């Protein structure tokens, strides 16, 4: 059986007008080897996700621009799980955040694994 490993995310929280922004690094629980950086964006005035979607997309596009101009390694990966699969409604809750982390961390691990394998070949 494959050995399971847990991960943690530690970072900072910022308030930018009506937006709550959380940025943190993702590392294995017993190490500081960076696996990725996660950014959560919350639009505080609106909890129904469908109503906030356009505003959120515009905000993330604005955040992407500085990293694109500076040629920062890596890329933004937008993760939007099918929340209905988990019995979650359109009104955003902490359970939605948990599902997003459960989706994004395996994606980070897979991306890192592919990079390591490509470097070995």
UniProtKB/TrEMBL annotation:
Q: Name one GO molecular function term.
A: transcription coactivator activity
One short Pfam name that applies is: Med20
Name where it mostly resides.
nucleus
What domain of life does the UniProt record list for this protein's source? Eukaryota
Q: Does the keyword Nucleus apply?
A: yes
GO-annotated biological processes: regulation of transcription by RNA polymerase II
The record's subcellular location field reads: Nucleus
Keywords per UniProt: Activator, Nucleus, Transcription, Transcription regulation
The record's GO CC annotations read: mediator complex
Keyword Transcription regulation among UniProt keywords = yes
Concerning PANTHER family, the annotation shows: MEDIATOR OF RNA POLYMERASE II TRANSCRIPTION SUBUNIT 20, UBIQUITIN SPECIFIC PROTEASE HOMOLOG 49
Describe the function of this protein.
Component of the Mediator complex, a coactivator involved in the regulated transcription of nearly all RNA polymerase II-dependent genes. Mediator functions as a bridge to convey information from gene-specific regulatory proteins to the basal RNA polymerase II transcription machinery. Mediator is recruited to promoters by direct interactions with regulatory proteins and serves as a scaffold for the assembly of a functional preinitiation complex with RNA polymerase II and the general transcription factors.
> What family is this?
Belongs to the Mediator complex subunit 20 family.
Describe its assembly: Component of the Mediator complex.
What is the official name of this protein in its record?
A: Mediator of RNA polymerase II transcription subunit 20
Which species is listed as the source? Manihot esculenta
């Amino acid at each position: 059986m494959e050995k399971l490993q847990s991960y943690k995310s530690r970072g900072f929280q910022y308030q930018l007008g009506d937006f709550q922004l959380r940025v943190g690094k993702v590392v294995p629980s017993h190490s500081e080897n960076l696996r990725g950086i996660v950014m959560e964006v919350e639009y505080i005035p609106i909890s129904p996700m469908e109503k906030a979607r356009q505003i959120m997309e515009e905000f993330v596009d604005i955040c992407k621009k500085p990293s694109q101009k500076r040629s920062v390694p890596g890329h933004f990966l937008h993760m939007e799980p099918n929340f209905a699969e988990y019995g979650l409604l359109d009104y955003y809750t902490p359970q939605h955040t948990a599902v997003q982390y459960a989706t994004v961390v395996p994606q980070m691990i897979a991306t890192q694994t592919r990079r390591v394998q490509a470097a070995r070949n």
